[in-house]
Every structure is written in structure tokens, then in C-alpha cells.
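Try this one yourself first.
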């Protein structure tokens, strides 16, 4: 893809012109929208993963012996997940 080529991968210029002529901007958005939808879907999946991981580490922290050598690692990972979750949709 060259610097001046703005169309999505796999979409030809003819398809873009056809969508614009027949459906206007709405047709163009339908043609370009799937990559945006995939990105939103991935954000949602990532958010679900972070939420489940936070719940797991919260449970692990409540069950672990306070003198266990992995305690600092669990606390650090819990903080990392909290930071990730807070900045996910910003």
C-alpha cells in the first residue's frame, strides 16, 4: 500500500467507486466498516480477558499464604491489570 492509497486491504478502487455511485457514503462505510468492527470486537474480548484475570488474581491473593514467595508477583500483576483496564477505553 502506497502512502497515497487510503483504501482498506482487499478492496479495489472499482469496488469503492461502485459503492459510492450506488449507495453514496453509506455504501462506502459498509465497505470500510468491517476492519473497525473487528477492532471493537477485539477490544471487548481483551476487556473480558482482563476482567477475568483480575478476578482470578483477586481470588489467588485471598487464598495464598502471606509468606508465599509468589505474593509480590501476584500483587504486581494485579496492579498491571488494573492499569490496563483503566486505560483500555480511554
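Now uncover the answer:
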Amino acid at each position: 500500500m502506497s502512502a497515497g492509497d487510503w483504501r482498506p486491504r482487499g478492496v479495489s478502487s472499482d469496488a469503492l467507486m461502485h459503492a459510492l455511485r450506488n449507495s453514496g457514503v453509506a455504501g462506502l462505510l459498509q465497505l470500510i466498516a468491517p476492519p473497525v468492527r473487528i477492532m471493537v470486537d477485539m477490544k471487548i474480548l481483551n476487556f473480558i480477558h482482563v476482567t477475568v484475570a483480575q478476578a482470578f488474581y483477586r481470588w489467588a491473593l485471598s487464598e495464598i499464604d502471606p509468606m508465599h514467595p509468589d505474593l509480590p508477583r501476584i500483587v504486581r500483576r494485579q496492579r498491571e491489570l488494573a492499569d490496563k483496564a483503566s486505560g483500555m477505553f480511554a
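Discussion: Residues 22 and 55 are 50 Å apart (CA to CA). Confidence is low (pLDDT under 50) at residues 1-5.
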